[in-house]
Each structure stands twice: as C-alpha cells, then as structure tokens.
Amino acid sequence: MKLDFLEPVTAGKGPWASVYATTGPIDEASATRRELSWRELCQSLGEQGADAATVEAVRAALERSSPDAEPRALALFASEGRVVLEHPLTRDPGRPDATWSALPRLAPLLELAGQEPSCLVARVDRSGADLELHDTGRGTDVGEVEGRDWPLHRAAAGDWSVKHFDASVENTWEENAALVAEEIARTCEAVDAELVVLAGGARECRAVRDELPVELREVTTISEHGGRAAGADTAHLTADVRAARMDHVARRTEAALDRFRAGRNASGRPDAAVEGVPAVVEAAQEHRIDTLLLRGTGPDLHREVWVGDGPDQMAVRRSEAHLLGAESPHSARADDALLLSTAAAGGEAVVLPGDGEDGTPAGGVGALLRWPLSDEEKAAQR
User: Fold this and answer.
1) What is the C-alpha separation between 339 and 102, in angstroms, rounded?
2) CATH assignment of 119-251?
3) Looking at the predicted structure, is the pLDDT value of residue 272 above 90?
4) Which of 277, 252, 272 lies closest to 262 in space, CA to CA?
5) Do 195 and 248 form a contact (C-beta atoms < 8 A)?
6) CB 185: neighbour CB atoms within 10 A?
7) Confidence at residue 25, expressed as pLDDT on a 0 to 100 scale
8) What span, in angstroms and rounded, lies between the C-alpha atoms of 180 and 206?
9) N or C: which terminal CB in the chain sees fewer CB atoms within 10 Å?
10) Cis peptide leading into 71, omega within 30 of 0?
11) CA–CA distance, 188 with 190 (Å, rounded to integer)
C-alpha cells in the first residue's frame, strides 16, 4: 500500500485525535444512532485530554460528511484545532473509535482503507474510450478519448475497391487504438493508477493493450463485460475490477514475502530484510525502509517505542531517543510509529496474512530495506 496520502499527517505536529467512524446509511433511525455515536466519540476525545478546538474540528468534519457517499465510513486525523486528513474507508470499522495520543493511530488504516490499488477502467469501442478511476467506492469519470469516426465498418462486397476500403477501416481501428493507449498511459500517470482494465469487444481491447507501454501491458486485464455502449453490463465489470485489484494485492503480498524470506536468509543478503521491533526501528532511523511488513495478529505491533518530533527520532528505549535529538520523548505504539516513519521516508506498507508460521516476520513486524549497509557502515555500528 502506498503511503503518500499520509503526507499531511507526516508534516503535522501532535498530539493527535484519530477517529474511525461510520457515516451512513441515512434513515431516521440510523441518523439518530450515527449522531449519538459521533457525540460519544467527541466526548471520549475530551476525556482523554484533547483540546476543545480539536474536538470541535472533529465534530464539524463528522457532521459535514455525506451519508450518501461511498464508502460510508472514514478516518479523521486532527491536531491543533484542525482536521489534517480525512480518508475514506472501504470497510466498516465496526465499533467507532477515537484516540488521543502522541502519534496518529494509523495502523487500522491498512486493513480498513484496503490495500487494493487504484485501477483505471477504459470502456473501449472502435472510435475511442471512456475512462474511469476505481479507487474507493464507485468509479469516477476521469476523461474520454475520441479517435476518427470514419471509416469504422467494413463493406459487404469483395472487389478491389472494397478491399481498399476495408484496409482504410483497419487503419482507422489501429490509429484509434493507439490514441486510446496513449491517453490511458497519460491518465494512469496523472491519477497514479497501478492497474488497467479494458472493457469492450475482445478485438478492440486487445488492439489497445498491444499499444500500451510494456510496464502497463503487464498490469492490464481485459473484461468481456461493460463496454462503451449504453446499457452495458456495469455490475459484472465492477466485479471484474474488484477481482483484478484483489489479485494484484495477493501477488504483491506474496512477492514481498518472497523478498523477505530471501533477504533474511543468511546465505543470501541478510541485510536486505530485517524483523523484530528493534531491528526495524534501527532501519527507520537510517531511512532504509522500502516496505514495512505488518502481520495483523503480531504480538509486537503494540510494543512500546519512544518518539520525538522527527519521524526518525524513534527508539526502543527513552534514553536512546534522547541521543537521537528528541528533547521530550513520548511513548507510542510500534506499528503507528513505524508507519509514520515509513510514510515520511516515501516507503510502502503491506499487511501480511497468517499467524507467523509461514515465514512471516517474528512478532509480526518486518521490513524490506532500500540498500544493504556497506562494510564501513557495519563497522561504524559495531
């Protein structure tokens, strides 16, 4: 899961109010329950020591949230009298939760916001395509591309002139496919989409896929549902998009695990991956975490660490945090501190399945590292 959306939080200053809440659906009974829940969340923040301005900012953000939006749950992070980040959740948090702490309570986001990548869907026909971004909730229109609209259809006869005309039709299809592919590549970069799903006729979709850059072609799938025509099958297309996103998560998770197992193997590169809170905290101090690995049932996720104002001012002991420049270290959960530090350093995070018996990190905390330490660096640490 990319963590760049956390930039407003990594740049902010605590302490933090972290709220996970349901915003819908809307009917008289549920609206009353929702408002009561929000009132209880704000009251809880006040009882935990949150300042009145921050509590009021959270209350206002909850009240202006749309009950008709999809998905119908969100996370809020507020500090110093303002909400710094609102992020939609793809899963209902169940019991709403509000926490006032030195660091934002980020770990639940990994599962509640989902690890599924954003996906660009192109509804393709011979003349062009309509583009949608599937991220959280329903697809959002992000543009269209229109190619030449003539000639698009072959003639019925078979003499020389018709064959010449058919060749022109083929040229039109190829030109339009290239235009669609070019726009897909541009839009993927603009909206940071990691996957592409092409929907429409098999031939048209294959023609577009063949024109895509190699790196996009490798993450592109074709759906036989939901083309560009009016009344196209949207429900089955949505299911195909969901399946593509889930498959991508599974493959990415397994790839991360493979790298982790190889990296901690003493016969390979033991400094390419680390496990356990002390080793991962040390990697965070050095800005070396490429991918943070967290197993949801890991016993060390809530282990205490000590943090300062900077994301690299983190240690397993309070005295060590002082040595890193933290004037007044605060106690924090290991998973929240490591997520904040990884996000600040431009890294990613992956939630791992299992109970630790399948090669996942000890204690539920591990990391893939950006580069191995040089011999000089290793000697300096000894």
Assistant:
1) 14
2) 3.30.420.60
3) no
4) 272
5) yes
6) 17
7) 60
8) 12
9) C
10) yes
11) 5
Least confident range from 56-60, 130-134, 174-178, 194-198: namely 174-178
What is the C-alpha to C-alpha distance for residues 310 and 297, in angstroms, rounded to an integer?
28
As a whole-number percent, the residues of the chain with pLDDT over 90 amount to: 51
Instruction: Answer yes or no: are the C-beta atoms of 146 and 228 closer than 8 Å.
Output: no
The one-letter amino acid at 282: E
Radius of gyration of the chain (CA): 25
What share of the chain in percent tops pLDDT 70? Answer: 83
Q: Are 333 and 104 in contact (CB under 8 A)?
A: no
CA pair distance 254, 341, nearest whole angstrom = 24
Give the burial class of 259: count Cβ atoms within 10 A of its Cβ; 0-12 exposed, 13-18 middle, 19 or more buried. middle
Q: Is 200 helix (H, G, I), strand (E, B) or coil?
A: strand
- Which tens digit of pLDDT belongs to each residue from 352-377? 887 656 678 989 999 999 876 555 55
Report the predicted TM-score, pTM, of the whole model to 2 decimal places. 0.81
Q: Are 179 and 163 in contact (CB under 8 A)?
A: no
* CATH architecture of the domain with residue range 264-381: 2-Layer Sandwich (3.30)
Q: Where are the domains of the chain?
A: 4-112, 119-251, 264-381
Contacts of 123 (CB under 8 A, 6+ apart): 129, 130, 131, 132, 199, 200, 226, 227, 228, 232
Structurally, at CATH architecture level, domain 4-112 sits in 2-Layer Sandwich (3.30)
Query: What single-letter DSSP state applies at residue 2?
Result: B
